[in-house]
Design brief:
The structure is a single chain. The chain starts with a strand and ends with a helix. Strand 11 and strand 12 form a beta hairpin. It contains 13 helices and twelve strands. The longest helix is centred in the first third of the chain and has 19 residues. It folds into two domains: 186 residues, Isopropylmalate Dehydrogenase (3-Layer(aba) Sandwich), CATH 3.40.718.10; 155 residues, 3-Layer(aba) Sandwich (Isopropylmalate Dehydrogenase). It is of the alpha/beta class. The model has no long low-confidence stretch (mean pLDDT 95). The strands form two sheets. The protein has a ten-stranded mixed sheet, sandwiched between helices. The radius of gyration is 20 Å and the shape is globular. Bound molecules: 3-isopropylmalic acid (IPM) and magnesium ion (MG). The site of 3-isopropylmalic acid (IPM) has 3 residues, from helix 5.
Length: 353
């Protein structure tokens, strides 16, 4: 294949982990005879500082011209503590999602046996947990009509049938490729938008007779995720619920630094770690590059390059087994490796494989 990749490194630890993702992708492409070219583009706080816009038109064009976007993270504390800021780095992320039509956000929650002891949950509960949360990403309260004055404010959880159908279709199809179990998460006992979701899902069920579909209120799902995370296989939900549940999912695995994600839809797909920009760690060479590197695995898998994806996953697993780990997941007394060293070890493993 001939891959054209837009690289949006963003803020904080973004550039450091981005470099590891790019190096891993280059190494895999060299090994399998793919051509790959990377084009950097600015976004987030870096882009606000440079041009006053967190997702500038040039960056959008670079994304549109690419086969895939390798995204890292955006965010900067100087905006978090300023409620009067007119423009924020996160708006760049939302603009990217909307303009690229990235309605489906795929967030796997996968545990690594060697890290289970890091989970806040008991080992016997979390062992074997392996599910995918499919979050609707371009609708709902994030993008519905908003209003705010001094005395009142609202956000509208607006969804149309086609928006619901297309994301549920992604859910049913993922379930088909996995254990044929789909959980539709909503709040149909209270919200009209959820009742439409549930109605549409029930109508679609007959087209997927091989998928066992169940329905769960979001409060119950949040509870079930910590009581019995192994219950889930594929869950599908709306934007806001998905935002919250995927943070919960990421921490039950033991390290947020390990989970990648894919956002797909109408235009160029985006692959990114689910953790944020961790500004406090910027430049310290301590951020875990594995979520970014696993995003590269998801990128290959998206393009049906299964062996390439499998090699990246094998290299990551081997680095963990060899205790080549960044400080937050290193075993007691184990050697400390930095972002660069973990990335370099994985590149080396790929070259030798
Ligand atoms: C996420 C993040 C974003 C979201 C923020 C940074 C706007 O929390 O990707 O989950 O709320 O979607
Ligand atoms: Mg979030």
């Amino acid at each position: 294949m001939d891959f054209k990749i837009a690289v949006l490194a963003g803020d904080g630890i973004g550039p450091e982990i981005s470099k590891q993702g790019v190096d891993v992708m280059s190494a895999v492409c060299a090994k399998f005879g793919h051509k790959v070219t990377f084009k950097d583009a600015i976004c987030g706080a870096a882009a606000i500082d440079a041009v006053g816009d967190p997702f500038p038109e040039d960056t959008f064009q670079t994304c549109m011209d690419a086969d895939a976007v390798l995204f890292s993270a955006v965010g900067d504390p100087k905006f978090d503590n300023d409620p009067t800021a007119k423009v924020r780095p996160e708006q760049g992320l939302l603009a990217m999602r909307k303009k690229l039509g990235l309605f489906a956000n795929i967030r796997p929650v996968e545990t690594f046996d060697c890290l289970i002891h890091k989970s806040p949950l008991r080992e016997d509960l979390v062992k074997g947990a392996d599910f995918i949360c499919i979050r609707e990403l371009t609708g709902g309260m994030y993008f519905g009509e908003k209003y705010q004055d001094n005395d009142k404010a609202y956000d509208t959880n607006y969804y149309t049938r086609p928006e619901i159908e297309r994301i549920l279709k992604v859910g049913f199809e993922y379930a088909r490729r996995r254990s044929h179990h789909l959980t539709v998460v909503d709040k149909a006992n209270v919200l009209a938008s959820s009742r439409l979701w549930r109605k549409v899902a029930q109508e679609m069920e007959s087209s997927y007779p091989d998928v066992r579909t169940d329905y769960m209120y979001v409060d119950n799902a949040a509870m079930r995720m910590i009581q019995e995370p192994t219950f889930f296989d594929v869950m599908v939900t709306e934007n806001t619920f998905g935002d919250i549940l995927t943070d919960e999912g990421s921490c039950i695995t033991g390290s947020m630094g390990l989970l990648p994600s894919a956002s797909t839809g109408e235009h160029t797909p985006v692959f990114e770690p689910i953790h944020g920009s961790w500004p406090q760690a910027k430049g310290l060479n301590i951020a875990n590059p594995l979520a970014q590197i696993l995003s590269v695995a998801m990128l290959f898998e998206y393009f049906d390059c299964k062996e390439e994806g499998a090699l990246v996953r094998k290299a990551v697993k081997s680095s963990l087994d060899a205790n080549v780990r960044t400080p937050e997941i290193q075993v007691e007394g184990g050697a400390k490796y930095g972002t660069k060293e973990v990335g370099a070890w994985i590149v080396d493993y790929i070259k030798k494989a």
